[in-house]
Amino acid sequence: QVQLVESGGGLVQTGGSLRLACAASGRNFITSPMAWFRQAPGKEREIAAAINWNGGSTYYADSMKGRSTISRDNAKATVYLQMNSLKPEDTAVYYCAADSHSYAHYKINQYEYTYWGHGTQVTVSS
Length: 126
Fold this sequence. Notes:
7-stranded mixed beta sheet; single chain; 126 residues; 4-stranded antiparallel beta sheet; 0% helix
């Protein structure tokens, strides 16, 4: 079984930064496209950012562009999401997801991801 464990969430003021981490175990992580999704209270879960298996291609939701960087360290089996200039509307539970298709390009549809972490809460105060 694949296990994904997120960390790095917390309470931060507007304009602050957070670095989320997702540690993977249980399968050949280095060949899996990965993504970060987020779900704000009362809203649907949405894509935040995605990265292909070797880190060579990335995707950002419009709301994240210019403020966030997704990266991965395959040696550590970890994916990161650096978020800067945080806004109250970034408040959400952030989930890490892994695709089960090795060497595939990243997906932006949550239903195409097989493995999920339990999420980490990010709260941005105004």
